[in-house]
Amino acid sequence: MDKTYQPAKIEQDWYQFWEKNNLFAPNGNVDKDSFCIMIPPPNVTGTLHMGHAFQDTIMDFLTRYHRMHGHNTLWQPGMDHAGIATQMVVERQLNQEGLSRQELGRTAFVKRIWEWKEKSGGQITQQLRRLGASPDWSRERFTMDDGLSKSVQTVFIKLYEQGLIYKGQRLVNWDPVLKTAVSDLEVESSEEQGSMWYLRYPISGTTQYLTVATTRPETMLGDSAVAVNPNDERYAHLIGKMIALPFCERLIPIIGDDYVDPDFGTGCVKITPAHDFNDHEMGKRHNLPMLNIFNDDASINTDMPEKYQGLDRFVARAQIVEDFKNAGLLEKIEAHTLKIPRCDRTNQIIEPYLTNQWYVDAKTLAKPAIDVVKSKQIKFVPENWDKTYFEWMNNIQDWCISRQLWWGHRIPAWYDLDGNIYVGESEAAIRAKYKLADIIVLTQDEDVLDTWFSSALWPFSTLGWPNQTADLKTFYPTSVLVTGFDIIFFWVARMIMMGMHLLDEIPFKEIYIHGLIRDQDGQKMSKSKGNVLDPIDLIDGIDLESLVIKRTTGLMQPQMAAGIEKSTRQHFPDGIKAFGTDALRFTFTALATNGRDIIFDVGRIEGYSNFCNKIWNAARFVFMNTEEQKLPEHSGKLALAHLSLADEWILSRLDFTLSELNRYVKDYRFDLATQVIYEFTWNEFCDWYLELAKPVLNGNVPDNQKDATRYNLMFVLDAILKALHPFMPYITEEIWQKLVTIAPQFKTHISISVASYPEITMRNEVVEAEMLWVQSILLEIRKIRAQMNIAPGKLLTVLFENASELDQIRIKQNLTSLLKLGRLESLSACAGVAPESAVALVGALRLLIPLAGLIDKDQELARLTRELNKLSPEIEKLDAKLKNKGFTDKAPVQVVEKEQGKLKEMLNTLNELETQLKKIGEL
Length: 923
Known about the structure:
single chain, alpha/beta, 4-stranded antiparallel beta sheet, 4-stranded mixed beta sheet, globular
């Protein structure tokens, strides 16, 4: 083995080995339960970001874990066609060529997208391979492949025939650039500075007026009423009177509605049912006219006053405000902070827009989907997310499923010249079904389905539904869904609704909801903040200049780019070093708590990179002490008869560790599973067992005991590698392949990835108690060395007093280990008066280390005083910082907590230094 672990040298080779040998496919074992997990299909336009990398690490962990347990395991891969995102990519390409999709035509444009998809789409699947993901790539699906398109069409037709899909006029989120409805998930709302205009509306037939406040004055063209609270004494007497709507030559009523808050603004609210979601509901309650003022590009339409027709919405806004001012009807303008909804694709402000769209009757579908979660047929992990689910499902609105795009599943509906709707597989099928003569002209609906419609069918459409396939029978319902809380409504709920309605079966048994990745300060990662980390950069490394270019390219504001460059140079003065895939994966599992936020600090991955090196060096030690020995084929049975205390202890601790690990995985506590295997491997195996093995391997002990320890080293290392494999697939495969070359009796499979997960029943609490006693003695001796600043290599004379009979037996049995690991010249009972010594207690047993000749009291006192004098002002400075309200109130919570932890650590160090100073002063 190389002296140092170099992940770049091995990762690609092992991944190709796994794929070439088809090791990701289900094993077909019918004697064990199947385990199936569906990948949340990434967009075909997507690239791997930290959220993907985290989520896919968790899914791959579960997949590898169950595969090694012998389960018939399927991780189903695939991609989403991503309607809007993909169409925009190709439209931008056309624009660069001086073309538009309209000039190209629908058929040619869709063909162009397919060409792009085959050539450039799916970059993310290659990046998933870099992450070590092990789905069965031979089964990869695409939401617009023939099979899934058939599923989508079947579902649409079935729901339409059942009256659960209908076409109607409703308010939607409208993007005036894309000219399509968009889902709530594609709308990002953020606070921006705007204005609040106070407009005077004259009361017809009087000299009075009502003042309304609005952030969108242009929408007054579509006002149908002014609403007041019926209990508001200021206005109750005006209910039923009419407003002369300025510039529109229309009268609109003053209505009473409890929705109006008398204490907000003026207590009078303009009602625009066609351009505001709340107003729309009030409009329906009061049977108000729905007046659409916009064209599909958000310009003013021809139904509005001639003066404003054709004006862009913001030009119209300025003109209307000017007209109110000139008419003496503009009371005031105030600066106002408001939430602005923008499309996450175009950054355009979304308009609520009244249009004809296709809808799914979600209320009807929701009831069975609510019941299966209530009855715990489907369990959320953590459980509290079911409250979020119920809140949304109990207040669900019908689902708008049509989009005014060309890329996607075209709606299988046709219209005759009279506007009659016919739904079916094709025009020919419709003509045959409805006996329509060829003379009747039919035109297919231009719209496509919402991307989430096909995604809702993902758990069963990927397995062959509507055909009753063997895969569907074997793997449906799937075992667990791993996803973020942000798409519980948009995806999770809809999969449950569709699964229950179409198959009368839940789509998955458990839903593991994970948090969202944030930076070291708890901030959301975004391009505009300049804090995005690319998982591939963490794997391969990236130099500082390349990182700066990557983070600032495409930013429109030079000031923002300059700030991001400064921050990047400050946080990563040397760029990002290459940590390798395994360190990144282990970091992700270590961070997988039950919280909403996952704080990612590069310092954590550096620590787990060191863990990889620790494993590598431990394996090198084991192999150096075993590779020339040729362990007997049945040495395991022979070893059991000659195990040392340390051998028995590490097997007992291995048993405990595996039991805990399995328990934590079952509970989806990947953070605790990571912690328990980390602590066993680093602390118990590397720091203790390997050191305890050295006196046996290198000492004057019988050969059969040496062979037992050698075998045990290999056995435990084999178990560690297998337990770690779902976390760290590459390094474990590399070391395991070397292990089975040295000791072929451990090779049961072609790869560790399909080897059996370790199982052992060797727990022995009596042995653990004795080893804890040995460890306590050694730790107390090390503690005295550290406190007295005694050189690690200096051999010590240690005396003991007050030893029980059990203590004396243990000292005799473990004397070699105590002398070697404690670096002791001798360990013996104290005879007579004890010399001036440093004292430690292990239970009632007193350990004495005579200090004569070991330390210079004056020098040590001077050294400790210097350290105290250096530390005290640092503590005062940090304490003052944390007492400063300006810092604690403004800084992110995570930053304050970090500083508080630093202060606590410094105070602990101060306490230790003062204790040492006192002890040495008393000598």
